[in-house]
Design brief:
Length: 472
């Protein structure tokens, strides 16, 4: 069970509780009497009284106590609040005997949580402890046997260490020689790779140039083909013009006698059209020749480009092969170098192992005796952890039954019977043996209060009754 003091947490009651703080002041009867007398004398001094008619006035003074009260509203809370929970978690709540508002007695069983899992753990831990005890016993017997054989194994260990030393020295020599050979081959292939790389770069520049020339030829060919279309159109129009001129000349033959000049003009037109047609045909033929030459040059460019690309592929393959071989030899070299270094370390290690084996042979008996003693100590102490675990589990099992820590009232229940308990506060119980009222006082009223003053508590639930208290 866990107790949590919630003195600072207030539970606000549903009905308004008015706390009347009665402060008893000093008796002031004499002061009242003096005030009354002064008032009478003042009145007489300001009132006209005929001399012929004497008169008197009387005043009665009553002795009483003067009281001053301060009314405030506060919150009622119990002495302590206990938040109850269990160490058993993720288990079913099998019984829940409390609900909010119940009055309970100290020791009452409020809830029960299924502890079968804890019981299983207790059984398991007990069996593990028994197994550990048996294991320690077997270990002790093994230590005794080891004590008997240690001295025999010492000679064998020395012999093996010397064999390993000789082997590591031989391996170191072989790996050093292989590392030197691999380094030489690496440099050879690196040099070939550099030459191949330069050849590739040169050929790539040539291919770039051929590609540019090919694009120029294609652009030139496109331009010539457009010119060819224009020239062919011109030839066609000139042929039409020549035919029209001849037709016109033939049609005007009967007019030549009347108009000799007409024949000369029409003949000149035919000659001009013929000359223009010849010029257009010559231009078209020239363009056709240029197209043919450009196509031949483009074909040669493509063949040269294809040949260069094939050569580039071969060179790049060689370049890649040389680079791969250089990397392979570099890796091989580093592997042999690493192996040689490892062998060197092994040599030192094996030398130390030989020395250690000799020293261990001398101290073998002492070590074996220490092992026997250590085994006995382990056997006597190994169960401590299991015992502590069993103690913890039994404490958990006990906490599966939640009981009331005091007489009081149940103020909170966070789950229902059958729910899975997760480890939070399950039930809260408020100690109702004593109560206190907490409130805030206006700053103008604080000066009227002192510790220890009498307090009268009233509430709608109390009716006309009141409860006496003390200001703390």
């Amino acid at each position: 069970m866990k107790k949590e003091n919630n003195m600072e947490k207030k539970k606000k009651i549903n009905v308004k509780k008015i706390v009347k703080i009665v402060i008893i002041s000093i008796i002031a009867a004499v002061a009242v009497f003096a005030i009354v007398i002064m008032a009478i004398l003042y009145k007489r001094s300001h009132t006209y009284i005929p001399s012929a008619i004497p008169s008197t006035e009387k005043a009665f003074v009553k002795k009483m106590d003067l009281k001053e009260t301060v009314d405030i509203t506060g919150y009622v809370s119990g002495k302590d609040t206990y938040n109850l929970q269990s160490d058993v978690t993720d288990a079913t709540i099998t019984k829940l005997n409390a609900k909010v508002g119940d009055t309970v007695k100290k020791g009452d069983v409020l809830a029960v949580i299924d502890d079968s899992a804890v019981e299983d753990e207790i059984y398991k831990t007990t069996k593990e402890m028994e197994a550990a005890t048996k294991k320690n016993s077997l270990s002790s017997e093994a230590n005794n046997r080891n004590y008997e054989t240690t001295s025999k194994n010492a000679d064998i260990s020395i012999e093996r260490a010397e064999d390993e030393l000789q082997k590591s020295e031989k391996d170191y020599k072989e790996n050093t020689e292989k590392q030197k050979a691999a380094k030489k081959d690496q440099k050879k292939f690196e040099k070939k790779y550099e030459f191949a790389k330069k050849d590739v770069e040169k050929l790539q520049a040539s291919i770039k140039k051929l590609n540019e020339e090919g694009r120029n030829y294609e652009r030139t060919l496109t331009s010539l083909q457009r010119q060819q279309e224009t020239a062919a159109s011109t030839v066609s129009s000139k042929e039409t013009a020549l035919a029209e001129a001849k037709e016109k000349l033939d049609a005007s033959e009967d007019k030549f006698e009347e108009n000799p000049t007409l024949k000369s003009q029409l003949t000149a037109n035919v000659n001009t059209a013929s000359d223009e047609l010849t010029t257009a045909k010559n231009t078209l033929n020239s363009i056709n020749k240029q197209i043919e030459e450009t196509q031949d040059a483009l074909s040669e460019n493509k063949y040269a480009l294809e040949d260069a690309q094939n050569k580039l592929s071969e060179l790049q393959k060689k370049e890649g092969d040389y680079k791969a071989k250089a990397e392979s030899k570099k890796t091989e070299k580093n592997t042999y170098l690493e192996s040689a270094n490892n062998c060197k370390n092994e040599i030192e290690k094996n030398r130390e192992a030989v020395d250690d084996a000799k020293r261990e042979g001398e101290k073998a008996i002492d070590d074996s005796e220490d092992a026997v003693k250590s085994g006995k100590i382990d056997a006597s102490t190994s169960n401590i952890g299991f015992k502590l675990q069993l103690k913890k589990l039994k404490r958990q099992k006990k906490s599966a039954v939640i009981t009331a820590p005091c007489d009081g009232i149940v103020t909170s229940v966070t789950a229902r019977e059958g729910d899975t308990y997760k480890g939070d506060t399950l039930i809260s119980v408020q100690d109702n043996s004593e109560y206190k009222i907490s409130s805030s006082v206006d700053q103008f009223e604080v000066g009227k209060l002192d510790k220890g003053m009498k307090v009268v508590v009233s509430s709608e639930t109390l009716g006309e009754k009141t409860i006496d208290g003390k200001l703390t």
